[in-house]
Amino acid sequence: MEFFVGLDVSLDETHICVVDEGGRIVKETRAASEPKAIAKAIRHQGRRIEHVGLEAGNLSQWLHEGLVREGFSVSVMEARHVRAAFAAMRVKTDRHDARGIAQLVRLGWFKRVHVKSLTAQETRVLLTARTFLIEKVTATENSLRAALRTFGLKMGSVTRKTWEARARELAAGNPLLEGIVDAMLRVRALLLDELASLDGQLMALAKSDPVTRLLMTTPGVGVIVALTFRSAVDDPDRFPRSRDVGAWAGLTPRRWQSGKTDIAGRITKAGDPRVRVMLFEAAASILGRARVMSPLKSWGLRIAKRTSMKKAIVAVSRKLATILLAMWKSGTAYWAAGRPPASAQDLAAA
Question: Transposase IS116/IS110/IS902 C-terminal domain location, by residue (predicted)?
Answer without folding.
Answer: 213-290
